[in-house]
Amino acid sequence: MSDIYSKYETVIGLEVHAQLLTESKLFCSDSAAFGGAPNTHISAISLAHPGTLPRMNRKAAEYAIKLGLACHCEIEKDNYFARKNYFYPDLPKGYQISQHTAPICKGGYVTVVTDAGSRQIKLNRIHLEEDAGKLLHDQDPANSYVDYNRAGVPLVEIVSEPDMHTSDEAYVYLTELRRLVRYLGVCDGNMEEGSMRCDANISVRLKGTTTLGTKVEVKNMNSIRNVKRAIDNEVKRQIDLIEAGGTLVQETRSFDASNGSSFPLRSKEEANDYRYFPEPDLAPFRLTDEFIAGIRATLPALPEELVQKYTAVYGLPEYDARVICDDKATADYFESLTAITTHYKAAANWMLGPVKSWLNEHSEDISRFPVTPGALAALISLTDSGKVSFSIASSRILPEMTQVAENPLAIATRLNLLQDNNADNISPIIDEVLAKYPDKVAAFRSGKKGLMSLFVGEVMKLSKGKADPRLTNELLAEKLKG
């Protein structure tokens, strides 16, 4: 990085909208499902016909609280909704029902792990609101169409403090947040489908100063990678403008992923531009301690808790633990597996090796893996006992287990794959190998002990993988004493 850019510190705050996985919309019974023909998940209420009244979706509040508890937030007991007034063609009411001064979750943090170490990114709030519809600009060359299916779908907006300083940190924060909502089952986190969307508030300031610079909001980013690209582009644009003597203006910009640049949309609104006032058609609602405690009791084990368990109790490397916890389905499978076997490291090796390879090869996720945790535990036990080698177990027995519902010992027996631990059978094979490589034998005896792996490999090859490796090593060591 040149001296010009190294003079500045970047300050980033992210606003993430996550669609909640409720069956119905926030204030009516219309379907909240993604997809469907345009304008089929609508009713008089979601279209804001005169005389219609909203009614609160209890499940949406439960999901918001669940996320708040997982993010260590303070849960607001006295809640109300407000009208956020602005005009946009995909907003049928002419206003959005949201929360303003009393968000359902306050404060909190999300822990991120980067190359610089572990850090807590502070949150400002998590609040409930309804989504707008969707404008379609590519259906007609002269007109834009509106699909109101999404209008009224429940959202949580997760607002961080301006507490991030690099695009890498923002990338890890968003990745962790997406993993968290998926673990909790409150959002599917699919940015490509718009069910998780991110706006980035970015400013720069000279290092050593504490006053925030002029904030620019960047919108229209449909992947975590594009959020990182947009931040990098905006930081460079701001610094270049400042260094050229220009003046930054507070504005909202849109990111063009095709060329990695942004362009201005409008001047940035302030809260008072929306003329917030309490929603008169919805009564305030109060949350009881018992209600919150009931939701807390449903929280699953979250990634950081599982990583701690796998490293401290199971003795796994932190990298292995974090890869296993990368998605909830994989962690759930591993939890079921380790409830049956105590060979924790072997279980992790199988998950990160042969199982992952099979899933990648077949473009499947763990939920569609045909081998149950119990069957895989039996295969691990078969390998650990020395009855089959890991190579044979992973290359021959596991593929067979994905095709037939048969226990691994029966498969190994049927395919004649059980390891031979009879010295009388292995010894002649060793003699044949040593006779084949007299010069290597001499080199070994003169000190080149690394040749042992060559001899073992040749024995395994001649025995078609059936020779017991431990016994093979012992017999070879004895014969090579000379």
From TrEMBL:
Pfam family, any one: GatB_Yqey
EC identifiers of the protein: 6.3.5.-
Record GO terms (molecular function): asparaginyl-tRNA synthase (glutamine-hydrolyzing) activity; ATP binding; glutaminyl-tRNA synthase (glutamine-hydrolyzing) activity; transferase activity
Key words of the record: ATP-binding, Ligase, Nucleotide-binding, Protein biosynthesis, Transferase
Enzyme class, first EC level, given as a word: ligase
UniProt family annotation: Belongs to the GatB/GatE family. GatB subfamily.
Complex and partners: Heterotrimer of A, B and C subunits.
Protein's recorded name: Aspartyl/glutamyl-tRNA(Asn/Gln) amidotransferase subunit B
Organism, as annotated: Chitinophaga flava
